[in-house]
């Protein structure tokens, strides 16, 4: 017997859909994944440059005022009025420090609120925001964040380490992001945003050009390989961000390196399938919040794996749980200056590279698909509605 569908309101008004950033992909993938399970999904997001995606999701254009996420809570009245009209059974909110509009709507309707938490709720050591909060004496930002967590019936996060200690374990669903494994495949085809030399081994970086994403480290590794006389390993860097000019300057005069700029997400399956190695050179030392934990659920890693690419990434504890070193890719010692170049040179050998890519694809399909992610959400939502989700342990 098929379980009845749910009416779900999903508030992610600081994200643009469609968009090229990870947050945009996450919101679209979750909304579409839940709708594909038969649920009636109403998703609130800022409209992108093109129309909202067609399909079963009912998209509602609602952005933070002036596009400023810190003003997001000013939309609480509009979200509450929409919720009263739609009468959802579950309200999901993509958490933001200055959000809370979805939780407020859920409380007003008496339905469970689900918080998706992809960035720390707790303050990291040395946080300027925490110092300001303490200067205000009553710590209004911490109190508001805590209120949201206390009122949420479920908190969905890649890492419980970024949640307040008072949240009970039975209200937490640790869940990785994923890849669309039906679109990201080793045989995906389409126009390429870069020139592909058929004789080269292409290492691809896809993502935000921010210091802690480490794009420049891939360029520096290629420079090291050139100094060793390794000319056939090339690099393609796809994306944009504040570090792009620095990356391009570092690559100047270096053969076999191309920076494409941002690429629409629908073009990414072909762009990855045409490469040979996926590189995720995270530099956690450049982002203080990562001092709490490596809380990211790295979209690029899952899409590389789904595309059949072996992954090269630093040997951080959490990344070891996602990529088996020597099986699905190569994890290198981030403190060793030549380690990234060494990993790329290792995977220049196709007899090593291809079995790892095949294993990475299998792991993505089995463990890191958006379909699996949304089925886990579906199960959790149904359990909430079947149980007493107003637990006194969370709402003293």
Question: Which helices and strands appear, and what pairs or packs with what?
Answer:
Elements: E1 7-17, H1 22-36, E2 40-47, E3 58-61, H2 76-86, E4 90-94, H3 101-109, E5 113-116, H4 128-135, H5 140-151, E6 154-157, E7 172-174, E8 201-206, H6 215-227, E9 233-238, H7 244-251, E10 257-261, H8 268-273, E11 277-279, H9 299-306, E12 311-314, H10 317-322, E13 329-332, H11 339-347, H12 350-367, H13 370-386
Parallel strand pairs: 1-2, 1-4, 2-3, 4-5, 5-6, 6-7, 8-9, 8-11, 9-10, 11-12, 12-13
Helix pairs in contact: 1-13, 2-3, 6-7, 6-11, 9-12
Description:
With 396 residues, the chain is α/β, with parallel strands linked by helices. It has two domains: 7-178 and 370-386, Glycogen Phosphorylase B (Rossmann fold), CATH 3.40.50; 201-367, 3-Layer(aba) Sandwich (Rossmann fold), CATH 3.40.50. Helices cover 35% and strands 17% of the residues. It has helices spanning 22-36, 76-86, 101-109, 128-135, 140-151, 215-227, 244-251, 268-273, 299-306, 317-322, 339-347, 350-367, 370-386, and strands at 7-17, 40-47, 58-61, 90-94, 113-116, 154-157, 172-174, 201-206, 233-238, 257-261, 277-279, 311-314, 329-332. It has a seven-stranded parallel sheet with strand order 3-2-1-4-5-6-7, with helices on both faces. It has a six-stranded parallel sheet with strand order 10-9-8-11-12-13, with helices on both faces. The two termini are 38 Å apart. Residues 392-396 have low confidence and may be disordered.
